[in-house]
Every structure is written in structure tokens, then in C-alpha cells.
């Protein structure tokens, strides 16, 4: 019997099941999803609380890492800028940035102070 089968057969939420066996809800979720393996300590606690033997279905599955999202901000006038390039143009301590490619400006906020920098310089 798997952890999920046991928990669902007793009509317990992951949070309640976790509390009964002394682990976090995240641990129960990871065990059910196959991202963690049932340890001897957890198997013993489940036996103690429920009188049921638990085994792992398979080896732990690695957590899926999202692919790196690349973002490019394109101007209708031509040219691209990445978020990293936007960040590099910000003054130290800037809390937020608003990119306005139609105005060739990045507006920034730092506390009560605001300002703007050009995205692309016209170097003619």
C-alpha cells in the first residue's frame, strides 16, 4: 500500500496525515509524488499510528526544473532589451522599473524618488 492509498482510504487530508506521523505536509506531498523515498523512520511511524506497512512505488523522481525563461522587450522602432539590461540601467536601490519602449524610457522608483533613463541612445 502506498502513502496516498492509505491517506485516501482513511479520508485524511495531506495536512492531517502529516501531523499524525510527525512530518510536514510538503513531505507527504513529495512522498506521494515520488520526489522523496519513504524512510525507515516514516515507515515505522506509519506502522505505529495506522498498523499498516508502507513501501515506495519506485525510486524518487527529480523535481522538474522550469526552463530558463528568456524575455526580450522589443521596440516598434527597432531594437531589443532584456530584463538583465534593464536592471543594469537602474540606479542602486531601485525598487521597480516600468519600460516604455514607445518613449525610449525606463521609469524607475526608489522610495519617494522617481526618474527615467533612456533605453537606447541615439549615437549619431
Describe the structure.
- The chain has 5 helices and 5 strands.
- The protein is an alpha+beta fold.
- It has 2 domains: 3-50, lambda repressor-like DNA-binding domains (434 Repressor (Amino-terminal Domain), Orthogonal Bundle); 73-118, no CATH class.
- The strands form 2 sheets. A 3-stranded antiparallel beta sheet has the order 3-4-5, with helices on one face. Strands 1-2 form a two-stranded antiparallel sheet.
Concise account of the structure shown:
This protein has 124 residues and is of the alpha+beta class. It has 5 helices and 5 strands, in the order H-H-H-H-E-E-H-E-E-E. Helices cover 34% and strands 17% of the residues.
What descriptors fit this protein?
124 residues; alpha+beta; 434 Repressor (Amino-terminal Domain); 2 domains; three-stranded antiparallel beta sheet; two-stranded antiparallel sheet; 5 helices; elongated
What is the helix content? 25-40%
Topology pattern, helix = H, strand = E? HHHHEEHEEE
Work out the radius of gyration: 26 Å
User: Globular, elongated, flat, extended or rod-shaped: what is the shape?
Assistant: elongated
Which structural class should the secondary elements be placed in?
A: alpha+beta
- CATH top level assignment of the largest domain: Mainly Alpha
Low-pLDDT ranges: 58-62
Question: Averaged pLDDT, please?
Answer: 81
Name the CATH homologous superfamily of the largest domain. lambda repressor-like DNA-binding domains
Number of strands: 5
What is the CATH fold-level name of the largest domain?
A: 434 Repressor (Amino-terminal Domain)
